[in-house]
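Today's session is about reading a structure prediction critically. Students often jump straight to the picture, but the first step is always the sequence itself: look for stretches that repeat, for charged clusters, for runs of hydrophobic residues. Only then move on to the predicted structure, which in these notes is written as discrete structure tokens rather than atom positions. Here is the chain we will use throughout the hour.
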Amino acid sequence: MKKTIKEPKINNLMDLLKRFPNEEACREFLEQSRWNGKPICFHCGHTEKIYRIQNGKLYKCGKCRKPFSIKMGTIFEDSALPLQKWFHAMFVVSAHKKGISSCQLAKDISVRQATAWHMLHRIRLTMSTGSFEKPLNGIVEIDETFIGGKPRRFGKRGFPHDKAIAFGAIQRNGKARIQTIPDTKGDTLKSAVREIVSPDSIVMTDNYKGYAGLDKEYKEHGVISHSTHQYVNGIIHTNTIEGFWSLLKRGIVGIYHHTSKKHLHRYCEEFEYRYNSRKLVDSDRFGMLLGACNGRLTYKNLIHSSK
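Below is the predicted structure for this chain, in token form.
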């Protein structure tokens, strides 16, 4: 389970600068976050006889005799940037409701735009929910949306071929799960629903025929007929997930301006993270992000891999 660090209470960038005035303060906090204050050898997992070298920048294991740092195994590994800049980036990404562009972040922390872009994608990696998340249950709203520029080519059902497709499910008064899908065929949509929604749930969708048959797999299937301009029928509606799409698209249009199909899933994970942590204060959201910083995403893998 990802560890949440509740302290310090950081409400703005001035608080962040006061709490982390130098690299030593950043390293100490990261050590407490990752190791609970007791270093663990990255190579062999040994916890005894760990020696600090190079003024605390590195550690050396008394068992395997190999050096390691607090950054190894995290999104900070192999980064020459100071942790202060990383902490600044992580705070603003998690605190800003619609995120921050790589161009703006590059200006704010004085790095190249390509560096800021890579940093943001590394941070989005920590925002990924992963497979450990429990399936959504209760009343779950389900919908899909198209993301991209103005359509130029259309399929048989009038769907644009050149747009990316995002699929989402939101548990009312609960969490959201967002992912990208290759098409809107019934088999694809129902497979995505099965992956993230518990069978004992009540699912709500619009009247798109791709969702037909969910009543046989779930407790109930409420259908709202958007094609006849119906948007609410008692408890049957998809207004929550529609609101999420509005927030996602406003963020993409207003902040990022463009997202490729290749990286759209990472932006979806970013907005999903902020939605699921919406009830936390900025300080706790920042601490939770730092507690989940394990994992690596090299620039080579980022630009060459499809996911």
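Discussion point for the tutorial: The mean pLDDT is 88.
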